[in-house]
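Lecture notes, unit on binding sites. The following record was shown on slide 14. It pairs a sequence with magnesium ion.
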Amino acid sequence: MVEKRKPIPVEEAVKKVMEFYIEQKSEKVPLEQSYNRFLAEDLVASHDVPAFDRSPYDGFALRSVDTESASSESPITFEVVGEIGAGYVFRGEVKPFQTVRIMTGAPIPAGCDAVVMLELTQEVADESKKIMQIKRSFKQGDNISYQGEDTKKGTVLVEKGTKINPGVVALLATFGYHEVNVAVKPVIGVIATGSELLSVDQPLEPGKIRNSNAYMIMAQIDRAGGEARYFGKFNDDFEDCYKATKDALAQVDCLITTGGVSVGDYDYMPAIFEKLGANVLFNKVAMRPGSVTTIAKVGDKLIYGLSGNPSACYVGFELFTRPILKTALFNKQPHLRKTKATLGVDFPKPNPFMRLVRGKVEYGESELFASPSGLDKSGVVSSLGGADALIVLPGGTRGYEKGMKVDVLLLEDLGGSEWPWSNIVPSYR
Ligand SMILES: Nc1nc2c(c(=O)[nH]1)N[C@H]1C(S)=C(S)[C@@H](COP(=O)(O)OP(=O)(O)OC[C@H]3O[C@@H](n4cnc5c(N)ncnc54)[C@H](O)[C@@H]3O)O[C@H]1N2
Ligand code: MOO
Ligand SMILES: [Mg+2]
């Protein structure tokens, strides 16, 4: 008789996993390599931006008081006493009815308190000096970008744990971070097991399939910000798999195996975990797909026995490995972002387990719609390509109807959830 496994709820399983953590470490990388990494410290403005009062336009800097009586009937003329482009400072003194030709980005000359756009001025012909004329008045502060109006020194602009996007790169450069303190990528090992597995470059043979899970998991690790290390695929042979698993564990922060966790004659992973002296957190989760997901602690490391079925394997990673990885990257919202969507199809058949349907979300005018991205079976691979969400259908005695509001977990969203697992309730009509 096979041992009877006791399924635990998804929420409980995630909680058990989250008691474990990979040590958070940081390293310095050149700014050019910081894109897509995760900040290991808050990004703080090290000076005001702009750092000096400057002109947002090409035009003329002047004293607003001199413009008070200007009108089309009685224009006022100014003597142009200098010219500054961005990057230069006007060192002279601007006296009454004098002006300085100024370009966008240049600092406002001392004594001036307004800038007139070039288009609102006229040149006046004069042999001996340069003269400019205006036909309306300007107020103090007109067309001046004041020091600190963009941001003030000391402001926390981006929090530790944030993924560095091109905008964050701009801020890092602005504040002189030629080297950036980023989270060290956790190293996640990957092992595929199964005597049926061919390499990707091999032609199909009867009874065999190509190993897709290993590459899928490596891409998932990469998407979550980790570093994947592949140890290869192994036949269903106890000793080979045991040795590979033991060796790999010593070289990584976490290890993922795929295949061989169920109750088949060649499903050796449970026995291998035992021989490794693993403390099994759970070996059955009340979810579909991925019910056989087995997670254990060996010493201070986690080992994931993910299902061999591609969809189950995929979901197992997103629910149980991603948050561990994200936490190591200083992320305070390590779980997939949860939001509400309107179900696009019926799910008439009740299921006692929570279903996580690979889905596609569409953006309606003011709501999201979610529909399956393909056949909803654990062994299916075709639904994975188009999946950008997991539709969460809690287990129960009734099915779900098109039009109901359901929770979805977004797979490609950069923002996350602190804890998406509370208040996931069935919305029966
Ligand atoms: N009697 C029972 N049979 C099964 C149960 C059960 O409770 N009782 N659970 C089923 C469920 S649910 C799942 S999920 C699978 C889990 O199987 P394993 O994790 O043991 O995985 P394998 O048996 O090795 O393979 C399953 C399936 O996936 C294919 N596979 C495996 N590795 C890969 C890979 N790297 N790339 C692509 N596809 C892979 C493999 O060929 C099989 O078709 O067990 C059910 N059975
Ligand atoms: O682990 Mo299985 O995926 O529930 O189909
Ligand atoms: Mg099996």
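Take-home: The chain has a mean pLDDT of 96.
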